[in-house]
């Protein structure tokens, strides 16, 4: 693990390289977390470790725990969803063996590693670190809303699961390719494995949503960009409070609106219609300007995976004309035009 | 303790009568919680128990623990702020003695009763209940944003600590005096002692702010009003996420805006100006209508305690004319005109 100063506090990064634990995932979707990490941080992922009956494959070399340890793996990352909320014995023995072999263990499960009987004690005895990405363990201050140095971009959404993490990472990659100073700031468990640290903002105590986001994105160089992963939507009946605290804590200079054009209604609430894109931009800008009067929306990111290439191009073009903003599919086209729009 | 069905879940009410524990409070302000409970629920408060050097007095009969137990006290309520975040031995021995004498113990402290060494075990052994009002212990579902039967009024604010609880309780009292069906729904620790139950929404996990509020205010008779205590402000850099989730979870038919006219800036953030009242009403109405398109602001409640009677009357009159809404000081005038405005 490495330490980095973040304001007056120290943060601990998940050590890489990672061995990605896929367990006995019943399908590819169950390993979505691991898949995201392998896509965005291939250099950090030394291999995948799969149990018998594992139906997922994220395209890394298969390794046993022993092989991975010998190859230098420093953290076993549980990047898979377990079924029914409990861990089978075969998983637990694998996690214990990883500790024995010298690895830390990081998990994106709801269930805490530290709740496994004897597991935390064993890790402590061996000098290993445990990291429950869904569960913030540090204390945060309440948000102050004070100006911080450096630049910030936040991805916001019409809904949950519309490509905010993907868009954020595409923007970070494009900025780094251009030699700009940029850091992806993770606010969910997959993003935390990709960044090596971060905070699951939806899991902090409600009073500290904006404060946790301020901690996540401290003062920085004037030409440095934090690319902050958004969560939820101001228009989601379940999660809007998280989205608003994140918006305030981010004090973004720029927002990018993310949208999935085929979504029939807000995810999880079938009686709630999707908001229009302009309405969603306006609401986010109005709320953001409480903290940063210069917040502006610099573009839109559509997930057009359900469309053919020509259909996607037409949809992007139409949306761009309707809103008067650059509109891209970061997967098909990269984030170049979004970064251009910051200039 | 009594049980009440709340949807499919059971909630446990703090048993009364209460004995109010004031400890060795250094001044009257330290006993603000207990003072609020004694004001609004005098029939539930059998007496006050004060240690040597206690400088607070909430106007109840002084009683020893033994006298209170003999008089029928069922819960010792720690309605006082301790200094430095730790409990002196003299407090702990008092709390333990209360258990021995047959009382439950309820606390509004940040520190959990269940974190006191051996305290929870002792309570369990004796069959007593502990209630940490600042710390929700149940699990909540995420908010659904579905229409619930019954009527709801939420107090909202320009800032924190501007009279939302006071106004809510004044409205409940007025409704009950008129024979209307009404229940105050508590969202902070003082309110929880006053209601006998509730949820500290600022202490729930961020994902569940609106869900906890939905739990707090379940389906009810068509002519029943839940009067829901607001928290924070959409314009507060620290807490707006809590306020938005509470607004969505409340799905209010009516909101009342609360304001303290002498406040020079947002409390705790000296660089943040107070929002204008109309702007604050508009923002709350716009956000509330995501869930309930019929939300309307029915009036304004000003805390005019800093003004003379004639100054207060002029200020209330001016505000009423500027906003075109009934504007009252619930302390000076009661909430009659606010309840009239619902008609």
Short description:
2 copies of one chain form a homodimer. By secondary structure, the first copy, chain A, is α/β, with parallel strands linked by helices.
**Strand count of chain A:** 13
Strand order of the largest sheet of chain A: 9-10-8-11-12-13
Stretches of chain A where pLDDT is under 50 for at least 5 consecutive residues are 1-5
Evaluate the radius of gyration of chain A: 20 Å
Assembly status: homodimer
Number of helices of chain A: 12
Helix content of chain A: 25-40%
CATH topology of the largest domain in chain A: Rossmann fold
Helix/strand order of chain A, N-terminal first: EEEHEHEHEHEEHEHHEHEHEHEHH
For the structure shown, list the relevant keywords.
Rossmann fold, alpha/beta, 6-stranded parallel sheet, disordered N terminus, homodimer, 12 helices, 343 residues, 5-stranded parallel sheet
Task: Give a description of the structure.
- 2 copies of one chain form a homodimer.
- The first copy, chain A, has 2 domains: 3-132, NAD(P)-binding Rossmann-like Domain (Rossmann fold), CATH 3.40.50.720; 151-340, 3-Layer(aba) Sandwich (Rossmann fold), CATH 3.40.50.300.
- Chain A is 33% helix and 18% strand.
- Chain A is built from 12 helices and 13 strands.
- In chain A, the strands form 3 sheets. Chain A has a 6-stranded parallel sheet, with helices on both faces.
- In chain A, strand 3 (18-23), helix 1 (32-40) and strand 4 form a beta-alpha-beta unit.
- In chain A, helix 1 packs parallel to helix 6.
- The first copy, chain A, is globular.
- Residues 1-5 of chain A have low confidence and may be disordered.
- Chains A and B meet through helix 7, helix 8 and helix 9 of A and helix 7, helix 8 and helix 9 of B.
């Amino acid at each position: 693990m490495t330490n980095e100063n973040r304001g007056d506090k120290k943060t601990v990064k998940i050590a890489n390289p990672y061995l990605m634990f896929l367990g006995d995932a019943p399908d590819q979707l169950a390993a979505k977390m691991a898949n995201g990490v392998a896509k965005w941080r291939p250099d950090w992922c030394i291999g995948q470790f799969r149990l018998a009956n594992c139906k997922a494959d994220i395209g890394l070399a298969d390794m046993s725990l022993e092989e991975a340890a010998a190859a230098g793996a420093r953290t076993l990352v549980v990047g898979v969803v377990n079924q029914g909320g409990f861990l089978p014995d075969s998983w637990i023995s694998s996690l214990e063996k990883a500790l024995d072999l010298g690895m830390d263990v990081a998990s994106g499960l709801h269930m805490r590693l530290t709740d496994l009987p004897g597991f935390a004690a064993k890790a402590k005895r061996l000098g290993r670190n445990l990291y429950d990405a869904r569960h913030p363990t540090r204390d945060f201050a309440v948000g102050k809303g004070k100006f911080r140095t450096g630049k910030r971009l936040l991805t916001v959404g019409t809904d949950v699961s519309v490509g905010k993490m993907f868009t954020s990472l595409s923007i970070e990659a494009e900025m780094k390719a251009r030699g700009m100073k940029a850091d992806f700031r993770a606010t969910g468990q997959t993003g935390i494995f990709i960044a090596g640290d971060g905070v699951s903002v939806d899991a902090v105590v409600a009073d500290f949503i904006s404060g946790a986001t301020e901690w996540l994105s401290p003062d920085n160089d004037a030409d440095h960009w934090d690319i902050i992963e958004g969560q939820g939507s101001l228009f989601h009946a379940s999660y809007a409070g998280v989205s608003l605290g994140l918006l305030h804590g981010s004090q973004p200079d720029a927002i990018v609106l993310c949208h999935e054009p085929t979504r029939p209604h807000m995810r999880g609430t079938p009686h709630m219609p999707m908001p229009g894109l302009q309405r969603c931009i306006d609401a986010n800008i109005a709320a953001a300007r409480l903290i940063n009067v210069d917040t502006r929306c610099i573009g839109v990111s559509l997930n057009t995976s359900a469309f053919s290439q020509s259909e996607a191009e037409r949809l992007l073009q139409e949306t761009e004309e309707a809103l008067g903003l650059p509109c891209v599919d970061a997967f098909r086209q990269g984030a170049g035009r979004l970064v251009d729009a910051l200039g």
